């Protein structure tokens, strides 16, 4: 959602609509009606979304733009840590994988609904949703790809891209679907008892993603 440096009348309403939509889209899916978004946001004017954003597609794009702007702030700290490692030693695929996994996990802790919304855009909005994700998260994606190519220069570029996108999809949906893991019985067969602490989960996830990226 484009903003001028000068706050405009009505911007607070538009912002409230976007924040409410992200929460509802993440929780219930992108098929949530715009009327429900307006009602939940406490906006009485039924034409408000059309007034501020035009068509539904433009409104959904404003939501993705908002999510991406906040996500890229989270990634900056991870890239800074990555750069510090580069200054001390040769980085590895695992280091690149950590940027991806930790960025998504920290963002999940900050705003669960936004991560769910990102996953739903892939699953529920088809070409439209996937094109938006690539457009607004491309800065992060292409930097990941460039760093992987530096780390594994002999790997064919097509495989780098394919394995990176599989890693992104696995990481995003793994964050969203991890509740299924905690519903599994423990290793002795007791129902609802399987648990990993944070370090075990994070290390296992990073190892899984790294193995896929390293594969030739």
Give the mean pLDDT. 91
Shape: globular
CATH overall fold name: Tetracycline Repressor, domain 2
Order of helices and strands: HHHHHHHHHH
What does this structure look like?
- This protein is 76% helix and 0% strand.
- It is globular and about 55 Å long.
- The N and C termini lie far apart (40 Å).
- Mean pLDDT is 91; it is low at 1-9.
- It has helices at 11-28, 34-41, 48-53, 56-88, 93-110, 112-124, 126-151, 157-177, 179-182, 198-214.
- α1 crosses α6 and α6 crosses α8.
- With 216 residues, the protein is mostly helical.
- The longest helix has 33 residues, at 56-88.
- The chain has a single domain, classed as Tetracycline Repressor, domain 2 (Orthogonal Bundle).
Outline the secondary-structure elements.
Elements: H1 11-28, H2 34-41, H3 48-53, H4 56-88, H5 93-110, H6 112-124, H7 126-151, H8 157-177, H9 179-182, H10 198-214
InterPro entries: Homeodomain-like_sf, HTH_TetR, Tet_transcr_reg_TetR-rel_C_sf
Organism: Alcanivorax profundi
Domain HTH tetR-type: 18-63
Summary, kept brief:
The protein is mainly alpha-helical and 216 residues long. It contains ten helices and no strands.
What descriptive keywords fit this protein?
Tetracycline Repressor, domain 2, 216 residues, TetR/AcrR family transcriptional regulator, mainly alpha, HTH_TetR, Homeodomain-like_sf, Tet_transcr_reg_TetR-rel_C_sf, DNA-binding, disordered N terminus
């Amino acid at each position: 959602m484009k903003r001028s440096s000068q706050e405009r009348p009505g911007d607070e309403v538009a912002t409230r609509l976007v924040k409410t939509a992200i929460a509802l889209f993440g929780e219930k899916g992108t098929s949530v009606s715009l009327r429900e978004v307006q009602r939940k946001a406490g906006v009485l004017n039924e034409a408000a979304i059309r007034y501020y954003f035009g068509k539904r597609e433009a409104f959904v794009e404003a939501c993705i733009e908002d999510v991406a702007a906040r996500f890229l702030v989270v990634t900056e700290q991870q890239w800074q840590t990555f750069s510090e490692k580069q200054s001390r030693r040769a980085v590895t695929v695992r280091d690149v994988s950590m940027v991806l996994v930790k960025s998504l996990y920290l963002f999940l802790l900050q705003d669960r609904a936004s991560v769910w919304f990102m996953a739903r855009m892939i699953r529920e909005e088809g070409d439209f949703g996937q094109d938006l994700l690539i457009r607004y998260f491309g800065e992060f994606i292409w930097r990941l790809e460039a760093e992987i190519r530096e780390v594994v220069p002999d790997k064919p570029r097509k495989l780098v891209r394919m394995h990176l996108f599989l890693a992104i999809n696995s990481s995003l949906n793994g964050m969203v679907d991890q509740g299924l893991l905690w519903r599994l019985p423990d290793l002795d067969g007791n129902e609802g008892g399987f648990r990993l602490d944070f370090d075990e989960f994070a290390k296992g996830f990073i190892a899984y993603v790294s193995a896929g990226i390293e594969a030739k």
